[in-house]
Structures are given as C-alpha cells and as structure tokens.
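Hi support team,

I submitted a single chain yesterday and got back a structure, but I'm not sure I'm reading the token output correctly. Could someone confirm the output below corresponds to the sequence I sent? I've pasted both exactly as they appear in my results page.

Thanks,
R.
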Amino acid sequence: MQLILNTASTLYPISLASLKLHLRLDSGSFADNVDESQSLVPDVYAIAANYTTHVGTGIDVLGYTALVILNSGTNGATGTVDCKIQESDDDVTYTDWPTGAFTQVTTANDNAVQEIEYTGVKQYIRTVAKVLLATCEFTTTVIRLTATSIEDDLLNDAIKSARDYVEDITRRTLLTATWEYYLNAWPDGNRIKLPFGNLQTTSLAITYDEVDSDSNKDTTTMTLTTDYLIETNGEGCGFIVLPYGETWPSFTHWPTKSIKIVFQAGWTTAALVPYKIKAACLLICSDLYSNREAQIVSGQDYRENKTVMRLLESSRLWDSF
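Hi R., thanks for writing in. Yes, this is the structure output for that exact sequence:
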C-alpha cells in the first residue's frame, strides 16, 4: 500500500479575516479598520513654481495598504495645481514615486477628488504640490487600511501550519484534496477501505496494470456500478465495494503499483468544516502568533494542549490501514 498526494487542497478551515478577529488585530468595523493622516493640510495655497514650497508631512505606510487622496477646492482664475506622491526609506530623503502623479487640477476640474493607491515598497510617503498662476484650495490625505499589516504573511503561514497539524492529529484531509492510493494486490474481502474520511465520488477512478503477452504494461480502467460500488459513509472512511456476485479482476500484476485508486477526500467548502475543528485551528494559530521562538517548556507541545485535543478528539479517525 502507498499513498501519494496528487493535488493538495487550496482551501483552509479558517480565513485570514477570522484569525485577525480572533487575535483582535481586526475590529470587524470598517471605521476602526482605517485611519487617515493629512499630508498637505486644507489651505489656500499660494503660487509656487516648484515642489519644494508646498511639502506635505511624511506618513509611515510600511506593511499597510495605503490610499492617497487629493481633494481639490476652488482654483483661482486660471490657477493650476500639480500634485505628486514622493517616497522615502527614512522620512528625510524623498524621491518621486514613478506612478504617483495626480491629474493636473485646473478651473475646469477643480472641486473634485482624485485617488491613487500606493503600491511602492518604501516606508514613508508624502505629497508635494506646485501651484501656478493663482492661489488654489486643496488638501491631501493618506488613508491606511490598518487591518492589513506586515504580519499577514506570518498569519497565513500559521493557518497553513494549523491545518496540517490538525490533519495529522485527526488523520483526515480537511478540505478537498486528490490522492493516489496504490495496492500490489486485491484484498481478500469484497471491499477496500480508503483513508482520510469525507470520501467524494467525484473523480474516483480505479485502474490496474497487467503484464501482457509481450511483457509490456497494459492498463485497464474499471467501471463504476459494473465493476465496483462506492460507499461514502459521510465523515467516516469510505469504501470501494464489489457489486453482488462480482470478484476482483484476475490478472498478472505489473511489478510495481499495479492497482491505482485516485480519489478525493475532505469537506468541499470551509463552511462545512465543524466549528470545533476551526476553533482548534484558531487556538493553534494564536499560539504560533504569540510564541514566535522555540518554546522551552518541559513536556509540553500542541499534543498536550488539552483544549485543542478535546476539540479534535471526536473528529479523529481511528481506522487502521
């Protein structure tokens, strides 16, 4: 018997958003998940034919999604405003961000709002403006999505680790994954047990390789309902069962991996995963987030986390293979 993961699951029992709520990194409220900082304060700006007179305050955006807003008021007659975003590593030396220029504001398009999302890699940004021909009213604001932080990669890794750990403990595939199950001989009985629980009928296929008369490999595909039946058994382990009166095919086996069963296991959506499993994942992620270095605690690891183990106890598959 040999198991090979064909296609890993791309789904996870908990989302980044739910983990942030659990860790209180996300308030769940839009208003509390953003903040605003003025770079160029609201004012009537005098004529300045350069970008060194009207210089805004630098805003720290490292690790955040940031939106820069130019809110223009009324331009003086024939007046124009050219505004752009600059970036810096140290909030001292700034250079122009290449794609950070707003559309020039004239009397034809003033009293309007423009937005540019900052997608650069520097820690600080600010706005600077040049005003020509007449005084003009405007302000610039930087809005940061504070629920998005530099630690998102860490949290996503924790979610993956938690899923893998829970799968090890429960001996399940939590969400849809495709496996290849190889046998070197048919079982003595009329059924084959498949691991991981939540057997799906989609894509299940059985083939066997025999040695033909020329000593070459000849592959035969078995037919559902004619050659075998599927017993899913809900969250338990599924079976492949012989129809009444049928027997397993008799053939000269290819020397290696002669019988191949491809199957999918796991819940099909994260919403179907029992909450006790999700709760265990959240607890594991919390521990990984809080304890980022090696924990030197005698005799303790996740397996001895009683809350995690009790949550997972009834979901564990005890079947042997």
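A quick pointer for reading it: The two ends are 9 Å apart (CA to CA). Let us know if anything else looks off.

Best,
Support desk
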